[in-house]
Amino acid sequence: MNKKTPALQEVKGVSKPETTNKNAFEKIKKSRAKITSAATFIAKILEGNIPFLSRAITLVESTNSRHQEKANQILEGCLPFANKSVRIGITGVPGVGKSTFIEAYGKYLTSKGKKVAILAIDPSSSVHKGAILGDKTRMEELVTDTNAFIRPSASGTSLGGVAQKTRESIILCEAAGFDTIIIETVGVGQSEITVNAMVDFFLLLKLAGAGDELQGIKRGIIEMADAIVINKTDGDNIENAKIAKVAFNRALHLYPIKESKWQPKVLTASALQNKGIADIYNLIESYISLTKENHYFYKKRNEQNKFWLLATIEQQLKDNFYKNQKVQEALAEEIINLENSKTTPFNAAKKILKL
Ligand code: GDP
Question: Can you give the residue ranges of every domain in the chain?
């Protein structure tokens, strides 16, 4: 691994656009990516240069093999400088106030002199290429804050693929000096598990209902949460929020003590009115102190690394398998055989796997 900060190399041979034609700009952007060395990227990222950080993330997200090769070199160079942040996962159903909360929390962090990077894992992005953070205008103030970096979700063909890119983006953001990384996801099930496998602290945003708070939340998600924050505790909602807090607290106490020795907490907040934000910050700080003291923090990160090693191997094996021409042909043939009742799914799979 490259422990030294590499020498800065000048970007050469980039000619100025002669026309404002969009295609010409695109071409120049592409050729810049080609000629900027990995060493330049690494040096610029370590300086905290945001345009280079963004471009490096674009390389990480690219499916082009040359881009991927460069991305891997950049990642390797950045890795010794990563790992120094607090990684927070935030989930909740659409409309619960995730963007509003992240805006309030992010501003609170930057007001304390911290640098916050916000990334997203959007399970739906693979379907309609949208992104939960795609609409950056929802974080109007944070987006102009020089100590905040907001990156919409990578798109991809699978949640695993998107997640891997987000994991790598975390490394780049940390190397660029971001000390808090927030990973946002929509509360739909599998994506929370994926996010939990890459963060230190997992925060579930909820709304107060009329005493039926526990309905509709999967047990697994409550079990994963290190804190539940009841958002929109303002106006007419205040009383309901108090009732919800009691109900959630009771529910959390039903679970056995976590390996982290942390007792998950329930807090109330109003992201819109900036209320309860400092309490959440203090809570996360106390979690980090406790788990660093009892070493759970490091153990969890090691386990996460092992998890991602295996997940990456699985993903790569699968990708290589399906990319194989012979496999594609055999698969098409066996599907026809299946339709004509000439084979069974099991036999067809066995035959294709033998290729
Ligand atoms: P997301 O879909 O989870 O990202 O939710 P948004 O942050 O976009 O918020 C959804 C709606 O809830 C918006 O109209 C927000 O203004 C509103 N909202 C967010 N937080 C609060 C809050 O603390 N109190 C109130 N009253 N409204 C809020």
Answer: 15-77, 84-295, 305-353
Residue 231 CA to ligand 1 center (angstroms) comes to 8
Out of 118-132, 153-167, 228-242, 273-287, pick the least confident.
Answer: 118-132
Residue 53: its pLDDT value, please? 97
Is it the case that residue 111 has pLDDT exceeding 90?
yes
| Cα(182)–Cα(174) distance, integer angstroms | 12
CATH 1.10.1030 assigned to domain 15-77? The reply is no
Q: What's the CATH fold of domain 84-295? A: Rossmann fold (3.40.50)
Mutate which of 137, 272, 274 for ligand 1 pocket (most atoms within 8 A of beta carbon)? 272
| Total-model pTM | 0.82
Nearest protein CA to atom 20 of ligand 1, as residue:
97
Q: Are 340 and 331 in contact (CB under 8 A)?
A: no
* 226 pLDDT above the threshold of 50: yes
Tell me the CA distances in angstroms from 353 to 97, 330, 350, one per residue in order: 46, 10, 5
- Take atom 6 of ligand 1 and give the residue whose Cα is closest: 97
Binding-site residues, ligand 1, Cβ < 6 A: 92, 94-100, 138, 231-232, 234, 270-272
Question: Does the structure show a pLDDT above 70 at 41?
Answer: yes
Q: How far apart are CA 124 and CA 155, in angstroms?
A: 9
